[in-house]
Amino acid sequence: MNWTAIWAIYRFEMARFVRTFLQSIISPVISTSLYFVVFGAAIGSRIDEVDGVTYGAFIVPGLIMLTVMTQAISNASFGIYFPKFIGTIYELLSAPISFAEVILGYVGAAATKSLFIGVMILITATFFVDLTIQNWPAMLAFLVLTCTSFALLGFIIGIWASNFEQLQLVPLLVVTPLVFLGGSFYSISMLPPFWQNVALFNPVVYLISGFRWSFFGMSDVPVAVSLLAIAGFTAICVFAVWWIFKTGWRIRS
Known about the structure:
Oligomer: single chain
Shape: globular
Largest sheet: none
Order of helices and strands: HHHHHHHHHH
Distance between the termini: 27 Å
Helix content: over 70%
């Protein structure tokens, strides 16, 4: 394993993250604070507790997942798309490093950035609501797995995209709606029976449900099913990335 190459890619991506501090860190924190003001204070004051949890605290796991997923995809997709855009991807492909080392560098950096932002959102939440976390190891496990799997998805989107419009297409039209409809701001048990069954086809439901369980000890679906869902999603993304590098799809053309 060429750890020097992995570290070089990782450090380059993290340096870009630091250079865009306002956009990368401050902007998500401000956006999440507005969510707390609107949903937690304005709407939450009109909603009773959800499964024994105040509404302001109930939406915290959903808000963290919403931010982490979108940031992981955004950082990973832009990280690999930009070398394609300016043509330096060929220097990367001709270098004596394997595809696994390239993925570790780019995906590792994107996952680290989104994990850092997720922790910042969690800290911000404590200024608005009384928050307790019942299972810290489970919370960290769900957070790391989500950051990694969605960074892999973002990497695939960055390889697939041929322009900046396509780079934003999947996150805006697919991922964000799935997150909003995945129980970020409500429990799917609050939906009519028909829509509860429809919601079970949304993979994001399992991620948010498992993550919320680590906070409050209650979930919409069994925790084991949530873990299997995110593990399966990660495995599919890993296979897709392996296939892309094996065939050269959208890389060598």
